[in-house]
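Board work, copied verbatim: MMPL family transporter
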Amino acid sequence: MSAGTTAQATGRPPHAATHGPPLRRLGLLLVRRRRLVLSLSLVVLIVAGVLAAGAASRLSLSRFEAPGSESDRAQAELIERFGTGSADMIFLVTARSGTVDDPDVEAAGRELTERIGRADGVAEADSYWTRGKPATLRSGDGRHALVVVRIPGDADHVRAEVLPRLVPEITAGGDLLQVRSGGGEEVFRETVPLARQDFVRAELVIFPLAFVLLWLYQRRAMAALVPILAGVFAMPIGLALLSGVLIFAEISTFALNLTLAMGLGLGIDYCLFVIQRFREETRSGRDRAGAVAAAVEHAGRTVLFSGLTVAASLAVLFALPFDFLRSFAYAGIAVVAGGLFAALIVLPAVLASIGGTMLPKRHRPERQDGFWHGLATRVMCRPLVSGGLATVLLLVLASPFLGLRFGVADDRILPAEAASRQTQEVIRQSFPAEETDAIQLVSADAVTAGVPSYAAGLSRLSGVAQVDSAAGSFADGRRVGDGDPARFEGVGTWLSVVPSAAALADDPVRLVEAVRSVEPPFEVLVGGYPAELSDYRASVVDRLPLVLALMLGVTFAVLFLMTRSVIIPIKATLLNVLSLGVMFGAIVWIFQEGNLSGLLGFTATGTLDPSIPILMLCVAYGLSMDYEVFLLSRIKEEYDRTGDTEQAVATGLQRGAPLITAAGGILALSFAAYATAQVVFVQMLGVGMAVAVLVDATVIRAVLVPSLMRLAGPLNWWPSGRGPRERTGRVTAPGR
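↓ predict structure ↓
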């Protein structure tokens, strides 16, 4: 098609087709080269699929750890100076008859401990029988005992290489002993396949339901199918981009679920907006080439700003020095890039080729005064009342957030039937203390004369069951056992503070703080699993203000570039804070307090791990801004045409709200499907994100946006200037 023909169809002079805005020129190029574009896109998809398969196999099993923290340095000192460290896993040994003190059971237990210690990859193995029969390694009824195991190496080595070989061999048991595996590494090893199963199950639900919803909205099978295919296209593109990141950074396998869920949702959303604009341009009389070019020019700009906003919100996770959270930034940005490629490069070529199959069978005249226009008009008639009631409702829904308590994750993130969780349940209920999760105090000082008094003082702390040291074992301030210099002395000394099971279940972070508050007679570093969790939580929470500042600043800049307004980004930020408040209110009410736990099938612990809420904060904020960008782009376009803020809001809502509601419903569905997950982290992410998207796409966009823009009036567009009607002085007062 010639430039002149296109210009005639679009109502512009010939030079506008070749010298117009960059996105229009891109749209025309994609139309002219559609066969080449589709052929190259197929090649890109095949290459991306190959790279994606390789990337998926190279994802790591990142730990929750804080590099450079006191607990991290303590662990390094413990390994370097004493050749020991925290236990990576445990084996729960149960006597099939009698007790663990019976001679034949004891002999079998010693042999089992020695066999574990000789296993490939195991550095240390100790047990109730080899460590002098401490009460902390024996259950109260005498039926169970523990074997504690240290396996050096990173999480991938431990969980992917050693444990899959060691666990089946050891848990085979025997005539005298039943053996079950547990411990932190085993819990997280069991989490990974369950999370993958959660994804597969959720996607089996999402795809058909998304197709039905899209068909109900578009009324054409091809118009429903193409956005889903675009979402599927975005997934391997995102994973292929991650293969490049894996050269210099670790990506957690848990980021895969977010990548695939967001890839599908954003791919559908972005393509829906381009297809909708293509339909509008066709209905206005443009030919197919002109409609594609106009869709890329207008909807494409919106999609670009939307993608930039989501990517910028996720990028703030780079401010956190944790591979686990940074993984989601890499994954999210990669999948946004995949969605943009699908919507702005592949889709226009598809529309140019088969766009007629996506048009409605009957061209109905577009209503300028439909439901959404009427709703916006009614809201703007009483902006204070409408906006006030909506705000009160959202604040009530967000109020449980005030009771937020950060804690640490444990085996209860798994379903009750998970093997490692069942092991940990027995330990919680039957053992007086948690020696496998001991707090370790490491000192390099050669002078250790103060060890007895220091150990006795630590043993008096509430929540401490026993303190083991070279000078002896202490409980309640008294010496209750002989010391073990061979274990606790070397270049310096170290002590093991064994917490009670109740203290670990209640608040291990508080116990770590109490241990650190006791003045030592020599310089010590506090480590061990509880200290690692405490340092990780503190590091995340301490950096939360920085994350918030970066997120607000970056998204403010993006919206300012799009609207050239200062007021609109501030308003958008306030509204997004409201939607985030509702999301956090929901996860506190459900996952912290345990409401709906029977329906969703999880166990509440009374606290939330800080990592997942921070991740949800960045993702939800980006997606909320996503819909803000979509709606504002239509309002701004109408305002630039008429200069009337009220008319722009009502018309923009009429044209944008149905699409935003449909897109939001599909994205919410994509996340809500994870409510059936077996892993609580995945459930929390799914439920929280679904709530945020639904609230944002309905109450906030339909009520609060019109009411606030009505109240602001001409100030909405400050300092970029006023529209044509406002410049002539014909503008309605901002309030009624």
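The chain has three domains: 22-58+191-407+542-727, 88-182, 439-527.
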